[in-house]
């Protein structure tokens, strides 16, 4: 069945003040916005010589449906403007290095003093505590310390691979923060109680690696590349090149699916040897030979619908033109104030699709500062004074 569009977005009426520019917190803000929250991006006021991180116009869906304000948090009046906004907000989301928000006077305790039920989420690489709390890092570092890279198939020479996407930022950080915030909002709705959420991306990687880590803790077995079925131990779970140079992914874990695959590839002699370690290289060799007989798309057309767990390895241009994703309305049209019309991903997560297929994306220089300050209780004269002293922009 086709899921009906929600009559009201799940997070409608929720206000999020977001200090992030890029990375996991920006992904979490994107998720919250897609679920209907009003996300206010808080940026710094322009300063001569200062470095401002401005993502490309298309990144993070171009921050569509979000509002913006620029504040000088080092000025007392700028900090007070934020706290007055926070008094009426539901969520604060930040990704400064641990300790920075407290030094600025905008940390959890500062916000809680004006809004006892605030949900305050701090995202960082290693969390707010521990010996690595102050370490700088990026996605690959968190995947490294969490065991993800070590358990992945190695390049020649034993080199751990670089993933094709920022897995830690996306799942261990962004989705981690988004889920934690939404769970805290559910509790707040029931009890009125706020929360402080210490989102560590590295901890999120451990959660992603739980099957392997828990196996080691319980049994002493050390996982790694080729350790078991999902990390390349068996030929039934691998990638294979086809006659045209294209690749297919095979995930025939269940015996009946592997038997179907063997039958259609004329490799039936291996159907009863799926997990026989002694013959895995022979099975792989025969599967490689079979797949090289036809093109990728020919094999996918035959094997895909035949309960074999075979799928094409797509490039990004192929992904966006794929019939399955097209049928589900995943691509929408956006119009940017200066860049014009372009395609982008729509609201993809379950429960976010309101039926919209066109969006407007504003230029990064556009702000809603005056309207947001008025909503926080400032009058026009006070706003003019704040602008005059450079506390807002």
Q: What is the strand and helix layout of this fold?
A:
Elements: E1 15-18, H1 24-34, E2 38-44, E3 67-71, H2 76-86, E4 91-94, H3 100-104, H4 108-112, E5 119-124, H5 139-145, H6 167-191, E6 195-200, H7 201-208, H8 210-219, E7 237-241, E8 247-251, H9 255-264, H10 280-291, H11 296-303, E9 310-312, H12 316-320, H13 323-327, E10 331-336, E11 340-345, E12 358-361, H14 369-375, H15 380-388
Parallel strand pairs: 1-2, 1-4, 2-3, 4-5, 5-6, 10-12
Antiparallel strand pairs: 7-8, 8-9, 10-11
Helix pairs in contact: 1-6, 6-7
Architecture overview:
By secondary structure, this protein is α/β, with parallel strands linked by helices. It folds into two domains: 218 residues, Crotonobetainyl-coa:carnitine coa-transferase, domain 1 (Rossmann fold, 3-Layer(aba) Sandwich); 85 residues, 2-Layer Sandwich (formyl-coa transferase, domain 3). The chain contains 15 helices and twelve strands. The strands form three sheets. A six-stranded parallel β-sheet has the order 3-2-1-4-5-6, with helices on both faces. Strands 7-8-9 form a three-stranded antiparallel β-sheet, covered by helices on one side. Helix 1 packs across helix 6 and helix 6 packs across helix 7.
Fraction of residues in β-strands = 15-25%
Task: Please identify the structural class as seen in this structure.
Answer: alpha/beta
Output the number of helix runs: 15
Q: Order of strands across the biggest sheet? A: 3-2-1-4-5-6
């Amino acid at each position: 069945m086709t899921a009906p569009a929600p009559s009201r977005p799940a997070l409608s009426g929720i206000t999020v003040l977001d200090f992030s520019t890029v990375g996991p917190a920006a992904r979490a803000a994107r998720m919250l916005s897609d679920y209907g929250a009003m996300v206010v991006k808080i940026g710094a006021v322009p300063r001569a010589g200062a470095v401002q991180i401005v993502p490309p116009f298309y990144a993070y869906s171009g921050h569509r449906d979000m509002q913006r304000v620029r504040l000088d948090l080092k000025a007392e009046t700028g900090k007070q403007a934020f706290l007055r906004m926070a008094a009426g907000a539901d969520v604060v989301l930040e990704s400064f290095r641990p300790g920075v928000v407290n030094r600025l006077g905008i940390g959890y305790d500062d916000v809680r003093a004006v809004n006892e039920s605030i949900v305050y989420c701090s995202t960082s690489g290693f969390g707010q505590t521990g010996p690595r709390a102050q370490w700088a890092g990026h996605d690959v570092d968190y995947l490294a310390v969490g065991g993800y890279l070590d358990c992945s198939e190695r390049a020649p020479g034993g080199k751990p691979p670089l993933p094709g996407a920022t897995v830690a930022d996306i799942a261990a950080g962004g989705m981690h923060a988004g889920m934690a915030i939404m769970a805290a909002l559910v509790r707040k709705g029931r009890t009125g109680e706020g929360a402080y959420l210490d989102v560590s991306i590295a901890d999120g990687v451990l959660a992603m690696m739980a099957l392997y880590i828990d196996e080691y803790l319980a049994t002493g077995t050390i996982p790694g590349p080729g350790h078991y079925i999902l990390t390349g131990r068996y030929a039934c779970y691998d990638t294979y090149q086809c006659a045209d140079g294209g690749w297919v992914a095979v995930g025939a874990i269940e015996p009946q699916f592997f038997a179907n695959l063997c039958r259609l590839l004329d490799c039936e002699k291996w159907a009863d040897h799926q997990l026989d370690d002694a013959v895995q290289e022979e099975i792989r060799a025969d599967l490689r030979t079979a797949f090289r007989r036809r093109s990728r798309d020919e094999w996918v057309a035959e094997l895909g619908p035949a309960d074999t767990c075979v799928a094409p390895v797509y490039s990004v241009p192929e992904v966006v033109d794929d019939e399955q994703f097209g049928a589900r309305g995943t691509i929408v049209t956006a119009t940017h104030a200066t860049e014009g019309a372009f395609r982008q991903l729509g609201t993809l997560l379950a429960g976010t699709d309101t039926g919209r297929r066109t969006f407007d994306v504003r230029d990064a220089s556009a702000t809603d500062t005056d309207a947001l300050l008025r909503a926080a209780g400032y009058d026009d004269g006070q706003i003019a004074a704040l602008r005059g002293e450079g506390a807002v922009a």
